[in-house]
Design a protein that fits this description.
72% helix; 0% strand; mainly alpha
């Protein structure tokens, strides 16, 4: 877990809750008639959460035989690839990296969705604000869009390095 991005995500999420009762929101509502600012607002939150759950190290460094971990070797051999060639191990690590990235995106998406729902419940209790299902739907659009963009960028980065 990357503590820097986790801290940024916590501060950003807290700011979302604190700004719900702010007069700044009513000022911005003039420029935001369809509440479309929910999309980038929660997209940024999903990005910060994803970065906080992503691994710090890029997985293509440990290809030398002396750097391979015993866990990777054991799991690699359990999947039926007894002839562990360099390319086979590289493909295994790439698949493991993609699995971790998808898991990170799913966890970040669920957390950001929970924060979006909690924010709408909170807004229902703030005087002058109301909760709406359309705002949650726009929040989810932002979260999904950010997750797909993050995974697409990470996939492209891995394929550039693999060639």
């Amino acid at each position: 877990m990357n503590l820097f991005f986790a801290f940024l995500a916590f501060v950003y999420g807290s700011a979302i809750f604190l700004m719900a009762g702010s007069p700044l929101v009513s000022t911005l509502s003039v420029f935001n008639p369809f509440s479309l600012l929910h999309i980038p607002l929660y997209g940024i939150l999903a990005l910060l959460l994803h970065l906080s759950f992503s691994s710090k190290k890029f997985p293509f460094r440990p290809f030398r035989e002396d750097r391979r971990s015993s866990i990777h070797k054991k799991r690699f051999h359990q999947e039926g690839a007894m002839d562990a060639t360099f390319q086979g191990y590289k493909n295994f690590v790439r698949a493991e990296w993609n699995r971790r990235e998808r898991r990170s995106a799913v966890i970040a998406g669920f957390l950001a969705s929970g924060i979006a729902i909690a924010d709408e419940i909170h807004q229902a209790r703030v005087p002058g604000r109301d909760a709406s299902v359309s705002d949650v739907a726009l929040d989810l659009v932002g979260i999904l869009l950010a997750s797909f963009i993050i995974l697409w960028i990470r996939k492209r980065k891995i394929s550039w390095l693999a060639s």
